[in-house]
Amino acid sequence: MARYDVQEAGFGAAGSSTQADVLFQMGMMYATGRDCDVDLVAAHKWFNIAAIKGCERAAALRSEVAGSMSKADLAKALRDARDWMTVH
Fold it and tell me: How many domains is the chain built from?
């Protein structure tokens, strides 16, 4: 299973549109199962982070994905995003 490592993405300063685009693509990868299994928790996590970084498309897709998730899965996705944000 191929995964795109965000740490190796080589994007610019925090909050740059390039970073948001990479994070959005991570969400798309997990939402569509591109090169991995579909994982809505991971998709929501990456869309959430991309939205925080300024990607409006990610905000819209985050809401769409959330509509297909259980409350427990949504809570996990939010925790995972928060945890990622505290480290990066």
Answer: 1
